[in-house]
Amino acid sequence: MQITSRFTIAVHVIACIDYFKDDYKVTSGFLAKSTGVNPVIIRGVLSQLKEAGIVNVRQGASGIALAKPLGEISFYDIYEAVDSVKDDGLFRFHENPSEECPVGRNIHAAADSRLMQVQRAMEDEMKRIRVSDVADDIRSRIQAQEA
Amino acid sequence: MQITSRFTIAVHVIACIDYFKDDYKVTSGFLAKSTGVNPVIIRGVLSQLKEAGIVNVRQGASGIALAKPLGEISFYDIYEAVDSVKDDGLFRFHENPSEECPVGRNIHAAADSRLMQVQRAMEDEMKRIRVSDVADDIRSRIQAQEA
DNA sequence: GTAACTTGTAATGTGATATATTACAAGTAT
DNA sequence: ATACTTGTAATATATCACATTACAAGTTAC
Q: What domains does chain A contain, in order, with CATH numbers?
């Protein structure tokens, strides 16, 4: 299984809001076109990002803005905001191991800490990456294309 | 999204094969009971583990055995064997970013290396964990329960 | 204040996928 | 030969991500 495209959509959306902030009125429709994703999905993502304190959106009022500078938004912040993986953990555990089997009875407790260890390694790496890293990369690619 | 339960099933299965190797004839039916998972799924997982050189199974012949010692089987080996995440990457990317938008045109290239970086962090951590770590833990839990 | 826009969200459709289940072929062992 | 195994195809079921429609509710500009 994979981590939902909501995550990359959110990264894209945040980068867009910043990139176009001075030139266009950024709306969910605008973002839907840039991402190629349905506007309703975009609004859903925006809602989650808003709840996480990453963007400012107001019903009715157009003009979506960032609530923090790009450099203060990490991949982890976004992942936590848009993905519900946090609740269930990265790994799905088979649900009915036998209570009668000594291995089945203990596998969950024995494996859990290691699964968490893997999940934490992933999350720690996400904390090290900021949207500004991606945005900078985008800008330099755009410049190279213009030249 | 989450990583398929096939992964924890595989860890469970491997631990079982080792734990019961001297006392019971371990079959897919036996493993199905211990895991609480359908025998056909177990056989599918066993096939994948066989292909990865982790277990030995022969059609018709009962008695499934490990192809290597527990200490030489890492979480990563199993993850690679049973999960097809490797093909698509851990992250799903939204598929139709606009070619007309400068951000949309470049987001994929700009984000990809960072997504890979996260995936690699996760996989590296999985390489550090062996099934023997879990099996040892299970044994000591069983002993504590018997006392 | 009303017209033309926005966002928020419920409801529904659709497609993909993980797991369960049935059924049976094919191999092995006693 | 009988009674077990594994291998696998075919199908069912459930879940879930995303798309879509529809509309309520808010904002802004005139």
A: 5-146 (1.10.10.10)
